[in-house]
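thought: fold this chain, then report.
action: predict
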Amino acid sequence: MPYEAKTDWKYDDLVTEKDMNRIEQGLKDAHVPAHQPLTLNPGLQVVEVEQDTPFRMGEVKGRTLMNLSGREGNFDYRTSPLFTFFGTGEIIPASTPVGTKVQKIVCDRAADSPGHFGARYELNIDRSKHYVAVAYLDNISCDEPVYFSLAEWKSTGYYTIRKSGNVKKGKGMQYRYIDISPDRLETQEKLVFYFRGEGTAGAEFRIGAFGIYEISQAEYEAIGKMKFAQVAERYPYVDSMTNVKNPYAIVTGGNLLPPFYEWSPQGVVKVTSPYEAELTPTTNEVTALWCDIPTSPNTDYILSIDQNGATMSVTGGADGAIIVDNTAATSAKFNSGDRNTIRVYVSNFLIGSETPSIGNFTFKNPMLTIGTEPRPFAPQQRSMIAFEAELAAHPVDGSNPDTLLMGDDGLPYVLGAWKKITLDGALDWKLNGTVKSDFKIVTVTGLPPAIKTVPQGIMVDYKGVTLTNDLAGVSGWTSGGCWQMGDAAYNNLYVSISNTDSGWGQDYNPTQDEIKAYFLGWKMYDPSTNLDGTGTYNRSDGLIKAWTPLDSFNGNFYNGVYKGPGVPNEIPSLKNTDVYVKHRSWTPYRLQYLKVKPTVEPVRNYELGATLCAGSNMVEVGSGIVIRERANPVNHAGLYYLVNHINFPASYLQHKAKKIAIYANNAIDSNWTHVDIDAYGLDRVFLEHSYFDPTAVYHVTYTMLDPTIPAPISGTVAANLRGTVSALVRAVSLLESEISISGEVAMTAADVGAAAKDEFDDLKKNAVVKNGDSVIEGMLSMSKNDGPHLQLKGTTSSFGEWYVGNERKGYFGVGDASNPDRVSVVSEKGSLNLYGAQGVNINGIAAYRQAVYLGEGTDLNAVTGEGLYYCPANVTVQTMKNVPLADAFALQVFRHAGVTQVFYNYRSNPGDGNLAAQYKRSYYNNHWTPWYKVADSRDIDDLKQSVVDGKGKVAGAINDMGGGPVSANNTFDELAAAIRANQGASGSTGLTKQFFDNFSGNFSGPTPFDAISGSFHFNKDGNAVGIAVSTKGGNNYDYVLREISPSGVRLSQQTIESGAYMYDTFRGGVGLAKPGKYAYAIRPDSITTTRVRIRNSSGTLVSSVQPPVSVTLPYTFDITEIGGTYYLSSFEWQGGTAFRATIYDSNFNKAFTSTVQETASGNFKGGYFIDPNTALYQLNGSVLCIRWTLANGWQEVQSNYVSDYYYTQLLAAYAYRQ
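observation:
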């Protein structure tokens, strides 16, 4: 217990043995330092200390998990779903502990024939080993529990070998595992991951991720004694080879709630100070602040907030269940239950009211503490230790771990047993001379030596697949996918690469640059034989080479064509690739091997200073933190600055981010807003333009989304007062020592081993070149104002020689027995290269003419000298004059009676497989002709295809309007006849009362909650198509796309989304429907705010966006699509009594705002698209036409004095046009 001094002694007080013991203990605590060990385990934990004390770092041991399925179990990386039986499978975006996608499996059995359904993944593992298999499963709607197993797959069915725990319906994504020993794997048939559910048509479950790890027998036996949570912590899902990377511990002491500026706002919210906020709703809309807090399961907490009549509440972070209902009290006690996260709200709901209230609500001093006793308010105290270091160990038995530790100087170091190398284009790759038919062997020399026995370590390829460590002679290798650290010193790396992966044909030997391109992520191919990037390049003439990104493979073909000059020397990107579609994140080869001797290396980036506060502390231990990475805010349209936005690659962080903190000039910047939509990962931030400081340096600290392994962090804390003081004194002493080393301290030349001036003077006077075997390592440099020179003198001859190692490669010199005046320059081992900046002349005659670089602002009219010219950068060409197009180019100039220029642009059309296009022009009689393109096979093919495409589009239009049927195969005369015969779409306009009864804007009438609501359209059959909402009672709504005949018969119904918590409406109802596209507003659950979702004609979700506060959905009229971009017609309140017509894109960015201002929202009586490019608005006594054109984008035309009658007439006339 802390020492409590008695300071009210009286003369006649009796001193007992207890008093003396207490006094002596206090003296001891003040004089004798005491420390106790403390290990911080991965995850959340509560740590109690008696006084404020720093955590003194001890060490972190490395660990490696090797997922034998690579990244095949991560649906962010898969290009296709797992094989599915008795059901359908698709990969969809979803919330999951791993990545951002899952596999959805829906049963397709008959309603009267329930049974099992699911998916499988075949394994290829050594059955003499022990394993632990893991998976995340979510039972959406199966009445029977869902599970996975390792199973034997025979022709007669699946036979379970070992089964995981069950996952019940509605429990969310759950971790499950299987441990298995060799005696259970003695099977002769195929071994599979088997994912199983039971149900009838429509039953659904989802797979979040899955993997399998080899373990030792000792670990297998230990797992049998572990609790479930311990196994889940020790064996999380990871991709491929994963180490402990960037470990950290965050200590939150006293108050677990952060300042209000770190909470998420909804509605009109103002943070007036770090711990005071105001909600000022002016409508009955939800206005709130909320934050998610990590918690320990089954732990008591007390929440206290000063408030003036509004409410606070607590819900479960994952399940959304109410833990503390809305209460106006200033404190509330609760237990976290089985949850790891809770969400704390303050809002404008009042007690006894089901509707949010209007008013001014103030919240002060939010406080969340562990326990049941209230405490006085204190700001949150957060501190951290973190290290950017990667710590490995043997993946099976954990031997030879890297160790992160603190040096005697108080700084962190890694005692590294494992060498880790990213195998990319920066290494000096060479082709090995061993000839193989199906693969090539490449090598890198001079790496740190490895051990001499298998396994030397682990290598994984770009797909995350483990390569075979084969120390036999490389000449005996029989396939790609092998590696070794070999030769006498075991320091040369050999890797075999299959021709299928690299694209190098059986008879083709890649150059060094082409090998580097492969390790940068490019596959080589021959577009003259395979335009889709498949196949290999096996030409002997070296022509028509092409490259495609390896990460663009979709399972059938590649999506991307390198468009730069020469061989790719950077990883694929949108800048150097045409038609590029990524199907997974690019990850280079990685090698990790055991070094002959461990090495000690300093940690370059770290944070120290974790402090435990007196009382209870919440400590989070994890890995994957990135510390103070330089951010690159991107200016978007002069409105915002963006960091880590998925649509702005220049704003990306180095890794996909899970949670971001942003700093300006090393101080936390609370002006940035966090968003989880359109993020490169799960979090992005944006800042209003007015808050951006162009002079500031912005950094971010964040946790990586990619799974990593956490590790325990051991250390000590002071057990008494003297221990705390000693720890602080030591920290200050080390800080002073570090300052004395790194600060501005006067140091002499002798301190750093520098030579003095007199020593240099002596060297200049007395230095000589000596005969003999002396070796000088480095560079000989000579200088003299009037030009240095080197003389080699001999009586009959004089020579200089070039050596590499101990081998002479060539010489230069003068004199021999037959011709003493002849000068020789000789290469004895290879070719002799001569280079001149302006060319090479022999006896005055040009033997080679160097191509001349053309720089910014060049006018090609002035380039008339015969020869070769070039410009390699598009951005430079854009500044030039009289070029045929703004592409990087080579130029050849011929000069005779006149001048002819031939222009070769470097860029080829995507996938065409031909050389760059040619353009020509001539100069004669003081006149330049225009540039003209030299026609090639591409132009002829394009002409043919354009005719076919044009006929196809005409035929499609005829068919859509009820004519035909015709196709591109019909002649022009036949198409013309079909146009003349087509008098418009077919279908009856004899609309009945039953037809009109199927429509409702406010869910009233004969068919409430079941009628088409909102804008709709007539299809080519004359039937109305629109969106309706049906209710199952309570907060349970289904959205459907319905087709109604003129007689009122419901012809078809397609469920768009089911089980919604609440619907929302546009101007005319819940839906906006146009041919091939439709939008609706939905609240999917009680936690998520309204989303506007857009789907295409096949029902695929193309957009799901939370509208910003500035957007009012009931002001939105209609939807259209132009060139693949969706637009919404609406109007916007701009403050006061100002309203303007507005066109939004699908992300609610303003594409156009009208200059015409109205004074009331009721003045907008229509705003519908009468064709895909034209929106027609009816204002108060005027009509406004907003139209999009390719040349000018959105533009407007207004006409005053147009009454409601004429606006209606205009719509009717447009519909009736022939």
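thought: worth noting. Residues 255-379 form a domain with the Jelly Rolls fold (CATH 2.60.120.260).
final: tokens above.
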